[in-house]
Design brief:
- By secondary structure, this protein is an all-beta fold.
- Helices cover about 0% and strands about 50% of the residues.
- The strands form two sheets. Strands 2, 4, 5, 6, 9, 10 and 11 form a seven-stranded mixed sheet that branches. A four-stranded antiparallel sheet has the order 1-3-8-7, with no helix packed on it.
- Strand 7 and strand 8 form a beta hairpin.
- The chain is globular, with a radius of gyration of 13 Å.
- It starts with a strand and ends with a strand.
Length: about 120
């Protein structure tokens, strides 16, 4: 059973920073790709950042240079450091896990990030 629990969302002003964390209950966490996705009202869910089992990363063009994804295999956590936030970053952010050898994906319940002055 895979469980993903996000935390760290909230309301911030434009230009500020926020750090999201995802705690994963996964037996073989090291073998999972971990990612952050987001869904804004009226829009489709989109990939924000992914980190592979080897630590390689991929970012959406819209967050490149502002967001950083990282993982701690000892703690089974994946973080998303978000800097220079803009109102366009407002969305529900979801943690995602996928075994490197499978197409099966798992989702957290989501955490709201609101960027507004």
């Amino acid at each position: 059973q895979v469980q993903l629990v996000e935390s760290g969302g909230g309301l911030v002003q434009p230009g500020e920073s926020l750090k999201l964390s995802c705690a994963a209950s996964i037996r073989s966490f090291r073998g999972f790709y971990m990612g952050w996705y987001r869904q804004a009202p009226g829009k489709q869910r989109e990939m924000v950042a992914i980190i592979t089992d080897n630590g390689n990363t991929k970012y959406a063009d819209s967050v490149l240079g502002r967001f950083t994804i990282s993982r701690d295999n000892a703690k089974n956590t994946v973080d998303l450091q978000m800097n220079s936030l803009t109102p366009d970053d407002t969305a529900v952010y979801y943690c995602n896990a996928r075994p490197s050898f499978s197409a099966t994906t798992y989702w957290g319940q989501g955490t709201q990030v609101t960027v507004s002055s």
